[in-house]
Known about the structure:
The chain is built from 18 helices and five strands. By secondary structure, it is mostly helical. Strands 3-4-5 form a three-stranded antiparallel β-sheet. A two-stranded antiparallel sheet has the order 1-2. A hairpin with a 2-residue loop joins strand 1 and strand 2 (37-40). It is globular.
Amino acid sequence: MIGLTTAEAAARLGVKPATLYAYVSRGLLTRTRTREGSRFDPAEVERLALGGRRGRGAAPLAFVTALTLIEDGAYRYRGVDAVDLSRSRPFEDAATWLWLGEWPHNGEPWAAPAGMARLAAAAGASLGPHTTPAERWRVAVAAAATADPLRHDRNPPAVAAAGRGLLATLVETLPVAAVRPPAGTVADSLAARLWARLSPLPATAAHVAVLDAALVLLADHEVAPSTLAARTAASFGADPYNAVLAGMAAASGPLHAASSLEVRPVLARANTYGPAVALGEVLRRGGAVHGFGHPLYPGGDPRATELLARLRHLGSLPRGVEGLLALAAERAMPSPNVDLALAALAETALMVPGASEAVFVLARTAGWIAHALEEYAGRTAFRLRASYVGAR
């Protein structure tokens, strides 16, 4: 890469060359000396330009990425429309596309390394009976890391291989809730194996296709809080497993991956007592109405639109859920978001407690690994400064 000249970098940042070299001395930019003069990494310059400076010694507040673009009510993975991708390729292909920018050359099932699966299962055996899948996975990831002596290899093929093994291990750590489908085109996919662990209903091709689509749709979403946590960890040298753990920790609250867990009881009440009673109870408690609206999609969350349409196509969206959606539209509430769609999937498939959060977390693990790979290729200077307001 040739890089930007001093004049080009200074112009992009709107500063004088002397200020540019001050950034270099403070570690905000890297300068490469060539026979033609100093050169600067365009990505680093762009990060600094986008993030600006907030306070003395502040680092950029934004990073550049080639993974996901959210624009005009849609989102794309490396230029490929995510909704279209969910209709044409399985989750394994979407994950590989995010990680390596290429499609898999074979359709071999992703397998959990024997030692890794054994350690993860042993760690999970001591957990309580009411442990949710996402809680179980946080323990499993920590155990899985100890089974991979090469986990610090940051070459993209090595990280992708670790990602395949980790995702398969996470699925295999969950107890089986239903009989797996017979050998066939979907029997060994991650979605089919996950369905058999989340739902007691048969893992038919139609059921698995909906779950597979949900995994693809949720694989990445630009700089969500959990992604920022995973990316920050990777920036400072965390291996892929610990980067995933950072993402899982940030996603665990009711305002992120677990938001759908707040929605499912409302859908269950709507099915039993009607949508007005269910919504009225939420409003009476003064709590937030989860499942509606998204700041990045004022016209409607495309992930929710796709998943709800798929559930309707199967004829499995309960009347109470449809009634709640109709009531929300009548009251001019924001459009449903993916949290409501995940809760609807879990409710209609009679999934185990915590299942909708599990779908989110497993899918987003692929995205966290993709963002870790970007950090390994070019580290973002995550070092913010606080605006101190306490006693001096």
